[in-house]
Amino acid sequence: MEEIFRKMPQYENDLSKVVQEIKDISIKFEATDIISNTVSFGHLHSTEQRPPLPGLKTVNFQTGKLKVLFTIDVKSNYNSGIFFNDDIVITDWDQKSVIFHDNTGKQTGVLSVQNDPTDITKVNDQTVAVSSDAQKFFIINVNPLNLIKTLDISVPVWDYVW
């Protein structure tokens, strides 16, 4: 502990330099009716700005408390996941599947997809879009998990959401 406290001014200086280089990039997705419009999901609008830097705040980790509600054992080499309403939806590259976990962490559904899923994003309160490196988007109803449609696209997709 003494070593950490002794080096604290240097850590704060290094952190301050790194924080000044951080950029806040946001993507806004405007959804369209995915059932009747299979040409596109909508429009992406990108903005970039520097986040406000009101100063570094000192936090005493010795007095803080963290409570782990549950853990999910993920064994795949490449996964993506989102919080979906009160639940969690995860893609599993190795098993070519989308996995639904309820708000207690219990796995309650698995949907196999025909290609390796690379990323996932929420479309609305019932639906997610899952991208694939095989030039496909899967539109999936979440509860219960079922494939609504598959959209062919012209390029492989990695990291659909940022």
UniProtKB/TrEMBL annotation:
Q: Can you name this protein?
A: Uncharacterized protein
Q: Which domain of life is it from?
A: Eukaryota
- Record the organism: Mytilus galloprovincialis (Mediterranean mussel)
